[in-house]
Automatic annotation (TrEMBL):
The chain crosses the membrane at residues 12-36, 42-63, 98-117, 146-164, 170-188, 214-239, 245-267, 297-315, 336-359, 365-383. SUPFAM superfamilies: MFS general substrate transporter. It comes from the Bacteria. InterPro entries: MFS (IPR011701), MFS_trans_sf (IPR036259). Pfam families: MFS_1. It is found in: Cell membrane. The keyword NAD does not apply. One of its GO terms (cellular component) is plasma membrane. GO terms for molecular function: transmembrane transporter activity. This is MFS transporter. It is a multi-pass membrane protein. Its main location: membrane. It comes from Pseudomonas poae.
Length: 396
C-alpha cells in the first residue's frame, strides 16, 4: 500500500485516539455506576478504580529498573484486542456481578489504559518531531480527540447503563471495541514506523533522568488526574445516593464536561490564564455538588471541562516542546501517563474511604470534591511560582 500523506496520517491517528478514549470512558462509567448500585459500597468503587492504576505502577517500577518498554501502535492494537476479549469472556459469567469481577475488570482496563495513554502520547509527540505538525496544534488536536471521545463515551455509557444489565453492558462495549479494533487492523496501512520501531521492545540504554521543572509539570498534570478521579468517584455518590438521580444524568454531566473540554481545544482564541481557570474550577465544583438544579449542574459541568482542559493544554504544550528527540519523548510520555494514572487512580480510593460511615459519610462527598479542587489549585500555584529551567534530560 502507498504510505499515507500528512493529512491522512493525522486524521487516522486522532480518529484512533477518539475511538479508544470513547470506549474506555464508556466502560469506566459502567464500572463506577454498577459498582455503587450493586454493592452499595463507596469504598469498593474507589478500590476498583485504584486497582486499575496500582498494578501498572508496580510493573513499571520493577521493569523500569532493567529496560524501557516502548510499543508500536500495531502492538497496542493487539493488547487492546486481548484485553476486551477478556472482559467479554468475563461478562458471560456471574463473576461480573461480584466484587472480584469488578476488580478483575479494573485490572484489565488499568493495564490497557497505561499502555494506551503512554503509547499514544509518545506517538503524538513524535508527530511534532517528524515535522508533521507544530506543538500547539499537536496539543490541541490530541485534547480535541480525547474530549470528543470522552463526551461520546460518557453520554452513551450513561444511556447504556440505564437500559441494560451489568453483563449486557460489558458485552456491548467489549464487542464494539473488538469489532473496531479488527476493522483497524484489516484496513490500516502498514506504515513505515522507523521512528517508533527503532526503540520498540526491550532497550538496553540506561534510563533518562528528567530535570526538576519537567517533574513539576508532570505533578500538576497528575493533580488534574486527581481531580478527574474525584469527579468519577464522588459525583456518582452525590447523584445516585444524595440527589437520587439516574445514570443518564451522570453520563450527561460527564458528557458536558467533555464538550466543554472540546470547546477549549477548538477555540484557541478563548484563553484563560492559570489563576482564572483554577478559580472557575472551584466555583464549578461547588455548583455541581451543592446545587440540585439540573440546569445549573449542566452549565457547571461544561464550565468545569472547559477550564480543566485549558489548563491541561498549556501543560501538554510545554511538555511536548521539552522533548528534543524521540527517546526523551518516550520517557516524558511514559512518566506523565504513569503518574497521571497513579494519582487519578489513587484519588477514588483515598476520597471514597472518607465517605464511609466511620468518617464523613455520604455527605462528605460534596466537601471532598471541593478539597480536590483546592489541591489542584495548590499545585498550579507551585508551578507558576517555580522558575523555569533548561528542559534537558540526562542519563543516570
Amino acid at each position: 500500500m502507498k504510505p499515507m500523506n500528512t493529512k491522512s496520517t493525522l486524521t487516522a491517528f486522532y480518529s484512533i485516539v477518539t475511538l479508544f478514549t470513547g470506549l474506555d470512558m464508556a466502560i469506566v462509567i459502567a464500572m463506577v455506576w454498577f459498582g455503587l448500585e450493586t454493592t452499595g459500597s463507596t469504598f469498593l468503587v474507589g478500590a476498583t478504580l485504584c486497582v486499575a492504576t496500582v498494578v501498572p505502577y508496580l510493573c513499571e517500577q520493577y521493569i523500569g529498573k532493567f529496560f524501557t518498554i516502548e510499543l508500536s501502535l500495531k502492538r497496542l492494537l493487539y493488547i487492546r484486542l486481548a484485553a476486551f476479549a477478556a472482559v467479554l469472556g468475563l461478562s458471560f459469567t456471574q463473576a461480573a456481578l461480584l466484587p472480584i469481577g469488578f476488580l478483575a475488570i479494573a485490572f484489565v482496563v488499568g493495564v490497557t489504559d497505561y499502555f494506551t495513554i503512554s503509547t499514544l502520547e509518545s506517538k503524538n509527540t513524535k508527530l511534532v518531531l517528524a515535522g508533521l505538525t507544530d506543538s500547539d496544534t499537536c496539543a490541541r488536536l490530541m485534547q480535541t480527540s480525547i474530549q470528543i471521545g470522552a463526551f461520546g463515551g460518557a453520554l452513551l455509557g450513561g444511556l447504556i447503563v440505564d437500559v441494560f444489565s451489568v453483563n449486557q453492558t460489558l458485552q456491548i462495549i467489549s464487542l464494539a471495541a473488538i469489532l473496531s479494533l479488527a476493522a483497524i487492523l484489516l484496513v490500516a496501512d502498514n506504515p513505515n514506523e522507523h521512528t517508533a520501531e527503532q526503540a520498540t521492545g526491550p532497550s538496553t540504554a540506561r534510563p533518562l533522568d528528567l530535570p526538576r521543572n519537567l517533574y513539576i509539570l508532570i505533578i500538576v498534570l497528575s493533580m488534574i488526574g486527581f481531580h478527574i478521579g474525584a469527579f468519577n468517584s464522588l459525583v456518582p455518590i452525590v447523584f445516585q445516593k444524595l440527589n437520587e438521580w439516574n445514570a443518564t444524568l451522570f453520563g450527561v454531566a460527564s458528557g458536558l464536561a467533555g464538550l466543554g473540554a472540546f470547546s477549549a481545544a477548538v477555540l484557541p482564541r478563548i484563553k484563560l490564564n492559570s489563576y482564572g481557570a483554577i478559580s472557575l474550577v472551584i466555583l464549578a465544583d461547588v455548583a455541581i455538588v451543592y446545587f440540585q438544579n439540573l440546569y445549573v449542574m449542566m452549565a457547571a459541568a461544561f464550565l468545569l471541562g472547559f477550564c480543566i482542559n485549558s489548563l491541561r493544554i498549556q501543560l501538554r504544550k510545554t511538555l511536548i516542546e521539552s522533548a528534543p528527540n524521540a527517546r526523551v519523548a518516550d520517557v516524558i510520555a511514559a512518566k506523565s501517563s504513569l503518574y497521571y494514572l497513579l494519582v487519578s487512580g489513587s484519588a477514588p480510593m483515598i476520597l471514597t474511604f472518607f465517605t464511609t460511615s466511620g468518617f464523613l459519610g455520604l455527605e462528605g462527598a460534596r466537601l471532598l470534591m471541593i478539597v480536590s479542587a483546592g489541591l489542584l489549585a495548590t499545585a498550579v500555584l507551585a508551578w507558576k511560582l517555580t522558575p523555569a529551567a533548561a528542559p534537558t534530560a540526562t542519563t543516570e
